[in-house]
Amino acid sequence: MPLNIETFNNAVGGNAFYKAVTHPLAAEPARALLAKLRSSGPVAIYDPHNLLAAFDALFPLDRIEIAGLFVQDVSHIGRTFRGNAARAVTELADCHAPTVLVAGFDTARADQHIKPLVNGASMLSFDAMRLPDDMLSDKGRYLSNLNFATNFAFFRDSDGHHTRIVTANYWSAYGGRVGHIWFSLFDQGGKVIAQWKDPLPEANGAVVIDSREVRARFSLPAFTGQLFLHVVGAAGHDVVKYALDTYGDAEDVLSCTHDANSWPANRYAGLPAPAVDEEVVLWVQNAHPNPIAAGEIGFNLMGDDNVAHLNEPVGGFATRRLSAAELLPHARWPQQIEIRAGKHLVRPRYEVLRQNGRQRMAHPNVEREDLKLDEKLPQLSALLGKGFILPAPVLPVDRFRSIVLPTPMSTAQAHLPVKLVIYDGAGRKAAEQSFGNLKRSDSVALAANELLNGRIEGGYGHMELLYDFDAGQDADGWLHALFRYEDLDTGHTAETSFGGHVFNTLVTYKSEPQSYKGPPPGLSTRLFLRVGPPPLDTLCHLIYPASRDWHPVSDTVLMLMSAKGQEVARKQLQIACGGSHLWRFNETFNAAERETAGANCYVLIRDTTCRLFGYHGLVGGRAFSLDHMFGF
Questions:
Q1: In what order do the strands lie in the sheet with 580-584?
Q2: SS3 25
Q3: How far is CA 632 from CA 198, 240, 288, 519, 581, in A?
Q4: pTM (2 d.p.)
Q5: Is the pLDDT assigned to residue 10 strictly greater than 70?
Q6: Handedness of CA 23, 25, 26, 27 (dihedral sign)
Q7: What's the CATH number of domain 24-129, 3.30.450.20, 2.60.40.10, 3.30.565.10, 3.40.50.720?
Q8: For the chain, which residues make up each domain, given as ranges?
């Protein structure tokens, strides 16, 4: 059973209470509070904000003698908790318990309200778990989302394998004050092996955390675990976005992936089954201080509800290497695996290891359980045009094989009526293929090269996965796919996955065209491109998808920024509506500009005329990486 706690609500965003009680620094104070409640005799509990059950899911109150449960909202009267029916707070005076727990933070006002009713009882609250004031971005309200701008990252430095996290101080653009990032590094067993804080750079400055430097800084042994990041001084965004590169001492070890989704979900999907020459490993990383019980994590093939469970616990904040073959030994590509995560994991990473020694890392995506089929979508083509578009690169066809695998990403998706349309760089249609009305259990991968017969004008382009309402009417707007890229010369592979959106139209539908900040429509671009250290080059594939005709060409600016956030150079770029542009950092910015920008520079991609979608990667001698970019 999943944890009985709401971690994220699509209407309001992340749940700050969840983050507050699972913060690494809250664990010991929470356990101390439990010990005090257990030893204090009967406890009356006042739960004015309905937070008690969520706390109990993480820190069970099973060994506490509850004298009574009291609530403020009359609609909550009668709800039960551990066999106790809630009564109105005005009846608290009849309880006479020696201890009263106020289930909330910032309880000074509530304490004052009920003080005449508690008959001199000792009063406790969740304020015992508060973080220090110097870790709060919004000191006026503890459960402000900005106080919990946190995230986890897979972090490894072992056996020639390293990790590098790159982001920027984008909070400064929203008025964020100068602050710091607090870090806690957990090893594979969940033990804290390093904690530190580094100042946030000046406005738009780069943030780089390299596992080799951390290991040397704290004289650490080899580790494979997770790094917790807490940004203090956040504004505008409570999400810590980053690019994560995995690289090695050997030049053929190179991969990249996106930031984690910092709110654990019950299910994830899009985990590919291994091919005959592969092992697929899911890195199970517990996001909570308490162990995951045996049987809480499981795998099943998409469309098959027979779940195979991991029948062993995973310790608090621990990392467990879980091979798909342990639970589903007969699963084979292109089958897909659904992850039953029970709200214990932030969006996890998986690694694919091939017999040829190559490996790659990517992430599955949150599978939503709150969606229903949208009967209006098939009738909206006159207004929304193409509607939801999922764009991805078609890399140069003489060197790469570009593959798409539609992936169900909602429990409502019993069928996926989808088609693939391929465009060259100028936005001209090059090929089209319908998948038909895929059943949930179907796993059909298509190679763009085969649809193109190995040829496309200009050598590259992009593909769009779209709803095919001629094949079926089932749609919910949560359209996802996995994209796999095979280097035909070296045998190296990269893969990425993402979801569709409505792009570049003034007509809005629900939250589309999505805007990262503010209401729809999102009609501008602000993308972050991290630049790899020499001798690696950086590639970027920018796509201009449009649900309806928009500006004929983009007005795109590539701004080369130093690590201090200062602009060094800029290049203008025009991309045809419905087209794309593939470029390399070393070819776009000359040697003098690159030298002036220096180490840890990055590129900010801006366009005030349209919304672009981007993919980025690194290129080495015999390896490359690719993943979708993030904006802010």
A1: 580-584, 537-543, 613-619, 627-628
A2: helix
A3: 22, 10, 27, 14, 21
A4: 0.95
A5: no
A6: positive
A7: 3.40.50.720
A8: 24-129, 145-366, 377-631
